[in-house]
Structure prediction request, 172 residues.
Amino acid sequence: MTINIKKCTIEDSRILQDISYETFNETFKDQNSPENMNAYLERAFNLKQLEKELVNVSSHFFFVYVNNEVAGYLKVNTNEAQSEEMGDESLEIERIYIKNNFQKHGLGKYLLNKAVEIALELNKKKIWLGVWEKNENAIAFYKKMGFVQTGAHTFYMGDEEQIDFIMTKTII
Prediction:
């Protein structure tokens, strides 16, 4: 199995949209109404929104490839692109999305390590993320990787208010 990573560009917006829809649906469709799923997907992953995020100098996207096939992606944010005020010493991991058929192959850890590498290059002291309180597999993974819950915030799936745990890891 050959694993590669590539920084996404504006030219990748359609591929990014496709994998965002696919991975988000695979992960959350069974726990949410179709109406709320569709509303969220359209708001978060429409081409205009993704292109805006791709050109933001404080956000970075990376595709992970397995044997030349896109298997998932990583999105990290710094500065004002962070979804919560966490300060200049923080880097947010906004998304680690892996297609179902590529899960349990170490790709999440691979992308998490890439986020740590970026944070260190940018002299950040901590990395943080929000994870849905009902996403037990992800919470267990992040705990295993050294994250601790440091708070919570509201996340809207369509018109349904949900809670994301904020998990943080000190890296310096």
Notes: The mean pLDDT is 96. The chain has one domain: 3-127. Strands lie at 3-7, 59-66, 69-77, 90-98, 126-132, 148-157, 160-170.
